[in-house]
Design goal:
Elements: H1 3-7, E1 21-24, E2 30-34, H2 37-40, H3 53-58, H4 76-90, E3 94-98, H5 101-104, H6 114-129, E4 133-139, H7 145-149, H8 157-173, E5 179-184, H9 186-192, H10 206-230, E6 236-241, E7 246-248, H11 253-276, H12 281-286, H13 300-304, E8 310-314, E9 319-323, E10 339-342, H14 358-370, E11 376-381, H15 398-416, E12 421-427, E13 446-449, E14 454-457, H16 459-470, E15 472-475
Parallel strand pairs: 2-3, 2-12, 3-4, 4-5, 5-6, 6-8, 7-9, 8-11, 11-12
Antiparallel strand pairs: 1-15, 9-10, 13-14
Helix pairs in contact: 4-6, 8-10, 9-10, 10-11, 14-15, 15-16
Length: 476
């Protein structure tokens, strides 16, 4: 018996008899799960792949817990067919994966490496054969190191390089992949990578962070235009943002202004260029000590506002904001001297993040009110807990089940209140390399023993399979 055989759900999706009330989701609702290339693939030096900024960052002493790297990760590069079989057994309808830029275009310039593209061709074929819709994300933070050496995201040429790369992947997979996401969480790439340096490439500069944010917006728009040109008319093109659910600590004017400042640099710095073709005026005013925004050139905002078909949002927890001073270095360019953060009350995950599903509902209804014509996908939502396999080889994770149940109920409530939510992608399929935390945090619904690479389905995966099977949440 293989590790995957042992990992299969004990019951088929939906096998448990329904009792009581079921909070049903719309017909055709997309039940998915999600991963990212550097976090699961491994094979860091195979098939012509060259280092990304995360390969370099993870090898820099003190940057990643325990000195962990993504060299092997969850070994998905070699175990992909078994992992797809796991998804099929769980009953998911969609799988959101990311393409490794340095595996496809190692220097960030020039032709594609066919061996790199071949892995994604095989992945897509496996998914389609299993009846699972592939959802491709082009950028989940693994910038080729050579492009960082040339200046990285603070330089506008990186946006043009991204558009070229988007065309290469679309040319290889566009006949079989119908849903495309340009960027995942550009806020993290810009402000954690270039602002406070806790993510790759580890720079600490307010100016670099703001330049990176703009050039990521430009890359999104330019990439979307290339996708539109290369893909069938039926293709769905999207962007995924980790929008921040913000609450003032008090109802004072100072705390409300703190929320406004963070909303500008966390949310509207992306929403306004993408949907309105403009920069937020208050953001520009707040950051005059950092930049005059002269790196925004004529025509840029027309490109950034290239129409998209849906918006993905990633949500884990809310933030409580007040007047004060942030720690230095800070990711909040232009707001550091005006804003502080207070831990929210209530239970917390292993990441020390508060559990609060109302924040997801708040974000979804905000999008309904501000962008009513744009369909929404919840492209990441999940929780890390200190999971382990018991002596019988089982992984019981009731806290994660409760977290997921509460957040799916919030999605259902938003749909009932008129939000056009088309799908939910649980983060994550597998335990994986959790960025600066290395392998110390587990988000997966499938446990991975990183020494043996054995997969074990957790209770949360069985629960999710049942939710998918019945098309909703069971209530007594």
């Amino acid at each position: 018996m293989t590790a995957v055989d042992e990992a299969r759900p004990a019951t088929a999706p939906g096998a448990r008899p329904e009792t009581g009330t079921v909070l049903r989701f719309p017909t055709g609702f997309r039940w998915g799960t999600a991963t990212a290339a550097y976090q699961i693939e491994g094979g860091a030096a195979e098939d012509g792949r060259t280092p990304s900024i995360w390969d370099t960052f993870s090898r820099t002493p003190g940057k990643v817990r325990n000195g962990d790297t993504g060299d092997i990760a969850a070994d998905h590069l070699h175990r992909m067919p078994d992992d797809v079989r796991l998804m099929k057994d769980l009953g998911v309808t969609d799988y959101r994966f990311s393409v490794s830029w340095p595996r496809v275009q190692p220097t960030g310039r020039g032709p594609a490496v066919e061996r790199g593209l071949d892995f994604y061709r095989r992945l897509v074929d496996e998914l389609l054969g299993a009846g699972i819709r592939p959802v491709a994300t082009l950028y989940h933070w693994d910038l080729p190191q050579e492009l960082e050496d040339a200046g990285g995201w603070p330089e506008r040429d990186t946006a043009h390089r991204f558009a070229e790369y988007a065309g290469l992947v679309a040319g290889a997979l566009g006949d079989r992949v119908s849903t495309w996401t340009t960027l995942n969480e550009p806020w993290c790439a810009a402000f954690l990578g270039y602002g406070n340096g806790v993510h790759a490439p580890g720079r600490t500069s307010d100016l670099a962070a703001l330049r990176a944010a703009h050039h990521l917006n430009l890359a999104h728009g330019a990439g979307a235009r290339v996708l539109r040109d290369r893909l069938p008319d039926t293709a769905e093109i999207s962007l995924t943002l980790n929008l921040h659910a913000l609450r003032p600590l008090s109802d004072t004017e100072a705390d409300r202004d703190a929320v406004r400042r963070i909303d500008a640099v966390a949310n509207r710095i992306f929403l306004d260029p993408v949907f309105h073709g403009r920069l937020p005026e208050d953001l520009v005013a707040d950051t005059t000590a950092v930049t005059d925004w002269s790196f925004v050139k004529d025509g840029d905002l027309e490109v950034t506002s290239t129409p998209i078909d849906s918006l993905g949002i990633n949500y884990y927890s809310p933030s409580v904001v007040s007047s004060g001073t942030s720690e230095s270095p800070s990711p909040w360019a232009g707001a550091e001297q005006h804003v502080a953060f207070t831990p929210a009350a209530g239970p917390r995950t292993a990441m020390d993040w508060p559990v609060d599903a109302d924040g997801l509902y708040e974000l979804l209804t905000r999008l309904r009110d501000e962008f009513p014509s744009v369909p929404v996908l919840v492209t990441e939502n999940g929780a890390a807990y200190d999971d382990y396999a018991d002596p019988e080889g089982e992984v019981h994770d009731p806290e994660r089940v409760a977290y997921l149940d509460g957040h799916l109920e919030a999605v259902h409530r938003a749909i009932e209140d008129g939000v056009d939510v088309r799908g939910y992608f649980l983060w994550s399929l597998l335990d994986n390399f959790e960025w600066a935390y290395g392998y110390s945090k587990r988000f997966g619904i499938v446990h991975v023993d990183f020494a043996s690479q054995r997969r074990t389905v957790k209770d949360s995966a069985r629960w999710y399979a049942e939710v998918i099977g019945r098309g909703g949440l069971e209530r007594a």
